[in-house]
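Hi W., the nicotinamide-adenine-dinucleotide complex you wanted:
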Amino acid sequence: GEALKRAGREHPHDIRRVHVVGAGTMGADIAMWAASKGFVVTLQDQKPEILARAMARASAFCKKRLKDPRQVQETMDRLMPDLAGHGLRRAELVIEAIVEKIEPKQALFRMIEERAPATALFATNTSSIPLEVLAQGLRDPTRLVGLHFFNPVEKMQLVEIVRGEQSAEAALDRARAWTAAIDRLPLDVKSSPGFLVNRILMPYLLEAVILVEEGVAPEEVDRAAVEFGMPMGPIELSDTVGLDICLSVAEMLSGPLHIDVPARLRELVEQGRLGKKSGEGFYRYT
Ligand code: NAD
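Structure:
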């Protein structure tokens, strides 16, 4: 905590207003976390009901975590649902957290570049798409970096700061400083497949799914991992991440990391069983 605060002071940054696009599992929590740390945050999604759910989740989280009702009110005042994306025009930092697919992300960044201030820093929360691919449509690809948060945002200290081939040093500096300012721990990584964490995590999660395919009960796999010391077993973690996200990431990484995508994962996604966010994945959630 103290070290991070010091880092924040030592690397002053110029970011006050943050615009987050995508209010799903990650975007909603990133936005809420940034608002709780004093930033003015606009949160955009294409679906109004998702925005409403994100605001309800943020409010519940604040009430639980911040004891002082005034602090709850102030945090929620700083977090604004923004269906039309008005916040883009004034943001110093834009964070993209939409579906893990190349074309929608490229199209979104083109739109962002049209509307955001010329000095705004652009960040993507992608888990597996090379930064160079996402930067392709940008007139100025030097302003794009990866800010790769982990799930759940409020518990996971680490944020990978992803350096694309074209990312400017100044952009990386700003990203690191802002990450420290929200009390997270920036870790520099290259834009290589899976960066650092997912390069290790994805083969582990997928191997656990293969065990289930082979007939081991999900509960048994998870129990073994928890007894080993993991805070959560790999099957429950896959449900938490979202099975559609797991599948997209697995598909992106299967070539470079030489991993097979388990058929079970594809089947569950095809059935709409996406994990905790849809109420059912490997487990049922009520
Ligand atoms: P999600 O499916 O929960 O949410 C994505 C949201 O984006 C949806 O609400 C959708 O309505 C919205 N959206 C899609 N296209 C849009 C557009 N053009 N404009 C505005 N909104 C749009 O996904 P998620 O799990 O939050 O993942 C988001 C990103 O974060 C992905 O790139 C993923 O790889 C990455 N990521 C996910 C995790 C995780 O644990 N789930 C962890 C780290 C990084």
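The pocket of nicotinamide-adenine-dinucleotide is lined by residues 21-27, 44-47, 50, 97-100, 104, 108, 125-127, 149-151, 241-242, 245, 249, 277 (CB under 6 Å).

W.
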